[in-house]
């Protein structure tokens, strides 16, 4: 290899810093990173569903099942238990009896989205566990249907004053 013995080992000045200076590198990626929301928050349309609004521990679910009041809607059983906090918390259960994972996850997303969109209407100071009933029409369930059932449930359990004509004590109501 005689043709390589005359190659200089010194680099030219123009090739010494062949990389792009850091100030100009990946400008669009830096802007994208700065617009990202904090971890643990789901942001759509300005409303957030924070982690502190979720029931995550098995013991919290079990306490709701054993000590909570049970309400029935067409597609859900909703357990309500006062939590002594200044906010509500949500837990969602969809067992394997309901169907494949795609269907179970879709139902949980719909329930979560209903609570997120209607945060101002959710009565405070309670834990809610929403259990999906096994029904044949779960595949046709959409956001409007879930919202209708859960908002009707909220109107039913919201505390009423005695001067309201429709005031009634809380009861197990399966008519919706």
Describe this structure in words.
The chain is of the alpha+beta class. It has a domain of 104 residues: Ribosomal Protein S5, domain 2 (2-Layer Sandwich), CATH 3.30.230.10. The termini are far apart.
CATH topological fold name of one domain? Ribosomal Protein S5, domain 2
| Helix share, percent | 25-40%
Low-confidence stretches: 35-45, 164-176
Main beta sheet: 4 strands, mixed
Shape: elongated
Radius of gyration: 27 Å
Terminal residue distance: 89 Å
CATH class of one domain: Alpha Beta
State the helix count. 5
- The spatial strand order of the largest sheet comes to 3-4-6-5
**Which percent range describes the beta-strand content?**
15-25%
What structural class do you assign from the helix and strand content? Answer: alpha+beta
CATH architecture of one domain: 2-Layer Sandwich
* Whole-number mean pLDDT: 77
The string of secondary-structure elements, in order, is HHEEHEEEHEH
- How many strand elements? 6
Summarize the structure.
This protein has 176 residues and is of the alpha+beta class. The chain is built from 5 helices and 6 strands; from the N terminus they run H-H-E-E-H-E-E-E-H-E-H.
């Amino acid at each position: 290899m005689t043709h390589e013995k005359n190659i200089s080992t010194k680099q030219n000045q123009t090739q010494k810093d062949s990389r792009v200076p850091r100030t100009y590198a990946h400008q669009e990626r830096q802007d994208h990173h700065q617009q990202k929301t904090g971890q643990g928050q789901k942001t759509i349309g300005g409303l957030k569903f924070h982690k502190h609004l979720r029931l995550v521990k098995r013991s919290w679910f079990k306490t709701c099942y054993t000590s909570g009041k049970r309400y029935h809607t067409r597609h859900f059983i909703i357990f309500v238990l006062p939590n002594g906090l200044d906010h509500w918390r949500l837990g969602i259960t969809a067992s394997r009896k309901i169907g494949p994972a795609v269907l179970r996850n879709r139902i949980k997303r719909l329930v979560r989205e209903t609570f997120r969109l209607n945060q101002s209407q959710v009565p405070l100071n309670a834990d809610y566990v929403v259990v999906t009933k096994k029904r044949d029409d779960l595949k046709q369930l959409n956001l409007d249907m879930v919202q209708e059932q859960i908002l009707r449930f909220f109107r039913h359990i919201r505390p009423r004053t005695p001067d309201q004509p429709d005031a009634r004590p809380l009861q197990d109501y399966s008519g919706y």
